[in-house]
Design goal:
The protein is mainly beta. The chain has a single domain (about 35-110, about 115-175), classed as Immunoglobulin-like, CATH 2.60.40. Helices cover about 10% and strands about 40% of the residues. The chain is built from one helix and eleven strands, in the order αβββββββββββ. The strands form three sheets. Strands 1, 6, 7, 9, 10 and 11 form a six-stranded antiparallel β-sheet that branches. The protein has a three-stranded antiparallel β-sheet with strand order 2-5-8, with no helix packed on it. A two-stranded antiparallel sheet has the order 3-4. Strand 3 (about 65-70) and strand 4 (about 70-75) form a beta hairpin. It is extended. The termini are far apart.
Amino acid sequence: MNRVSGAFLVVLLCSVAGSAQNLTPPKSDQPSPSKVFLYPGQSAYFSGANCPVGLRAQRQGLGNVVIVDGSNRYVAAPQVHLMFDNWQVNAIVAMTVTVHGYDAKARISPVDRDAEGSSELTKTVDLKLSVDGGKKASTDLILRPLATVSRVDLESVEYADGSRWSASAGKTCHVVPDLFMLAGSK
C-alpha cells in the first residue's frame, strides 16, 4: 500500500470515528416525554406533563385454551391487569381507557401503525372504581376479540368532587403492557 492511499485511509477512519463521537441528540419534531416511569420488567411511557395517575398494565394470558360451556365453544381472550396510582388528593370514581391490540388473524403489519390499512383494533372500557387520593387500585380486563395488547391509553378520569380530566392533543397518557407474563394464577 502506498503512502497516499494509507494517508487517505487514516483520514477516512478518523472522520468516521469523530462523527461517531458526536453526543448531540438528533433533532425531532416529536415532543419528548416529560414524565417517564419505569416499573420492573415494564416500559411505561406517559407523554404530557399532566397525566393525573400512574398506570401500569400486566399481561395475563390463558394460552391456547378453548373453553367449552355446554354447546358454546369459545377461545379464551387475553386479560390485562391494570394498576392505578392516584397522585391527586381527590378520590377517583371512574376512568375510561382504550386498549389497542390485534386479533389472531395472520397479517402483514405496516411499520407505521397509523398508516392506512393498519389492522389494529381498539376496545374502549369504562371503569367504575374508587381510588382515594394518594392510594392505589387495580382491575382486570377481559379483551375479547383481541388476541394481543399493544398499548393502553388513558382517555378520562372522573373525580368524586365532580371534576374531570380528559386526554387531548397536549395531554395524553399511555402505557405498554409488561414484557413479562405470569404463567400461573395470582
